[in-house]
Amino acid sequence: MTSASPEKGFDRICRLAEARGLAEVERDTSYGTPALKVAGASFVRMKDADTLVLHCPHEQKVLLIEISPEIYFETEHYRDYPVVLINLGAINDEELSLRLHDAWMFKAPERLKKA
């Protein structure tokens, strides 16, 4: 996959989040890049045109990186944060959709998770 603008990658993220039916998701920015938020909390954002920053529990991050290092990775900057980086050119829509749902569940307030 060739490099695209952040907006094109972000359009894919938005399409998948909408198809999942994630509640109270809004488009916004985080650290100057396009982001999706749930109830005001960012759960995913573009790092650059090819890389997504996805919020997740540390245990999940470790497992994802171990299982699929061609898709999931971290840099020194993100080492101690509950986020994993995703190579958008290496992940298919089905798996990315699942990761978006997981990130939404990680950041959504309890009232939304129960609905």
From TrEMBL:
<dbReference type="Pfam" id="PF04237">
    <property type="entry name" value="YjbR"/>
</dbReference>
<protein>
    <recommendedName>
        <fullName>MmcQ/YjbR family DNA-binding protein</fullName>
    </recommendedName>
</protein>
<dbReference type="InterPro" id="IPR058532">
    <property type="entry name" value="YjbR/MT2646/Rv2570-like"/>
</dbReference>
